[in-house]
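User: Round two. Same drill as before: sequence, then structure, for each protein.

Assistant: Same drill it is. First protein:
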Amino acid sequence: AIENIKRKGIPIIIFGAGIVGEVLFLACCNAGIKVECFCDNNITKTKSTICGVNIIHVQDLKTKYKDAHFIISAADIKDVVDQLDDLGFTKWYPSSLLLRNLDIYQYQFSAQVDFVEFAVSTCLLCHDSYMNPEKLFLRSVDIIITERCSLKCRDCSNLMQYYKKPKDCDIEEIMQSIDALCNLIDEVNEFRVIGGEPFMNKEIHLVMKRLIDEPKVRRIVIYTNGTIVPKEDQIEYMKNNKVLFIITDYGVLSRKLNILTQLLRQNNIAYHILKVEGWSDCAKIMRHQRNPEQQKKVFTDCCAKNLVTLSSGKL
């Protein structure tokens, strides 16, 4: 298939200008495949380049290319295939074609190697599951363990600003929910442990142990804001290759960020820092008076439509 891509003589475009796209570009170079450009749904990315190559917006594809081969680096491959099909492009390849045997530890990328490995393995698993749909596979499950938070973000996308009396979620109910879900599915790529701020729940380590011990769960990602440092007895439950910390850096508000990252390094726990450089307006909870077509467009463009949430015993 790689030789077929090189023989066709039409432009090769990587769909997805993220960290996996960066790795895929390197794999293409190693295979002697010349990449014409990247394309992405995030229009703000078109103002920059990746690996010295231009990024174009998806809506500009039809005006710039009559035909092209696409290698998909986005994890949500079904969305990309559907989008390309709507635009009249039918020649695409999963990134697994080139990434499967690439040793990422030999190279340097714009993100820490732990996060690169996590992103690439997620992409491979999602693409494999799409190409072999007989398994009941979930890419990502958010599991809410507390409504409490150490920050007060305006218009929090997890709606924490609406709780009048936030509380920790019932630990027994959380465990029963994990059991029930895992009894029904074949595999989950990642459980995302969230709140609020998950470390507000002092029983977080019990949830972590249950997820680590579950063979159907590939990764556990803790989303934290860098304001709370886990205690020594909690950190012991997080020393596992399945675990990844995603730390949102809110600048001076993330007052324990340096202490937290030092602790994670000392205990050899993978982490990735997301620097907040602007505010994402997730819209208000109100009537927007959209017609059905507008509602469909909002859903199609939504970055979270493929995520599911486990909360209060419901999926």
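Second protein:
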Amino acid sequence: KTETAKFQSLKSQLDPHFLFNSLNVLTSLIGENPDQAERFTTKLSKVYRYVLEQKDKDLIGLEEELSFASSYMQLLQMRFEEAISFKIPNSISNPDLKIVPLSLQLLLENAVKHNVITSRQPLNIEIFEQDNYLVVKNSLNPKTSIEKSTKVGLANIHQRYALLTRDKVIIDKSDQHFIVKIPLLTQKINMMKTDYMNDDAKYLRAKKKVEELKEFY
């Protein structure tokens, strides 16, 4: 019961977190480029529909999540233009590979939130498979001050994976790059179903089965 409740609580963070960060981007665009802000709003509605559909799932196909990540990066490029670039694989090694839903989106947001992004100091993001992990690698140019945060992101990913698998999320930081490796899973994880029946109900059900067996014999 406790593990299931924890997992559900972590998933419930994703919806408001995504909306909060997207509205921050939209607010910036309204002042910088109103026409682009209008286009951003239209595309955001399509991306947000995906968030609503996927956020309650335990796992999602890697191919589907990569497709969503591509759409989300297009949203970010509407704001930052040539100051941000990304590489996403066109194909995957195994169609059965799965990851935690919206983990890529959280990592992309994290990269944008913590780094300076200008045409002179562009943010480069690369996503690829390596040794049963999905690697998200971004150039590192840390901001001196961090904008207001919902405190979701890496911690959410760590905790959700910890409740699903023994495989660890790996973080590797150097002077030039920040790298996060998330486990690629191939087996559907079934969260434990909780039986909410009270003791009296269980007793009555067992008693009924005994009576049925007596009649049979």
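The longest strand covers residues 123-130.

User: Perfect.
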